[in-house]
Amino acid sequence: MSNFTDTSTFSPAPSCALHPRSPLLSGMSDHTLGVILPTLVYIIGSVVFYIVNELELFSSYRIHPPKEELHRNRVSKLGCLLVVIRYHVMQIVIGILLTYNNEPELVEIGGCETYQWVRRVRKCLTVIPWALTLLGLDTQGLISKFGKTPLLSHISANSYEISSSPTFTAMEWNLARIIVSFAIPAIQFFVYLAIVDTWIYFAHRLCHINKTLYRIVHAQHHQLYVPYAYGAVYAHWLETLFMDILSFTLANAISGISVRQGMIVTSLATLKTISDHCNFVFPWDPFGYINGNNAAFHDLHHQSWGLKYNYSTYTVFWDKFFGTEWTDTTGADMRYARTRELVKARRETDEVTIVHPKAA
């Protein structure tokens, strides 16, 4: 295995011909799989949480008591399910229309992209002696202090000249491979996340600021004061189109991610949405570990007293930036407790009414 101090290796320029990528599943294009995969993930995740909820498992991690949704939610589970089905039908139909004529994704075989990047790495390294000099540092002194390697020797001599068939060090190749395999996909992922998170934050907040938008469009989603997993995308069709589908379509186009990267990103986004509405806060929830945007964060937004807070879906960046993050945990606990007391009193009143109905 090569290491960073290996001697230089000669490599001619590889062929940069592009070839169609073979599909992951025989008989189905990657484009089609990428369209239906989020729905499959949604179904599986929702079924898992439905079973957990019905069997009353992990009760200590539950946000709302089992019976609370019967007294607080403004839509039946069947009504919610029908809207959720409509959401996924819209998502699949639009996805198929957008990818209908797309040819298989083209990929290079033979390391052409890595070769292009190793040349860029070489060019960047030629700047190092000049940068060190501008900073007032002694290149030869650094080499003497930290050890003389082939790479440092070349830097010191400023001998990096690009030719049609250059000789590159193992370190240059390793840096190029890291850039191609990890750095570029990571940048694409964060660009994608930033676009979706920004779009949804401002669109979501607008739906709460504008009373007409809230009343006609977004109020439907807030009929679930006690969310549950399969109701995560229960929303007006306009919200489905302009907040969810449009944000992901733009992010996909701008970030330049591949079809298979898109499968991973949309699957994770689907799991995050289900997790936000599952009514459980698990200590091992990976989304909570990343930035605190978990089920507890989003459930607070579903309460009547938390509607003007916690608009973000994937990060807490914009909520922190604009001061719309709910930070009073003690106050939230008191309000949750008060809500449980009111629901309990209402339930007891209903039971008394059933047992002792008023005389006609």
From TrEMBL:
Keywords on record: Membrane, Transmembrane, Transmembrane helix
Transmembrane segments: 32-52, 178-202
Name of the protein: Fatty acid hydroxylase domain-containing protein
Organism per entry: Botrytis elliptica
Record GO biological process: lipid biosynthetic process
Organism superkingdom: Eukaryota
Molecular-function annotations in GO: iron ion binding; oxidoreductase activity
Domain named Fatty acid hydroxylase: residues: 189-324
Any Pfam family hit: FA_hydroxylase
An example Gene Ontology CC term for this record: membrane
Compartments where found: Membrane
Main location: membrane
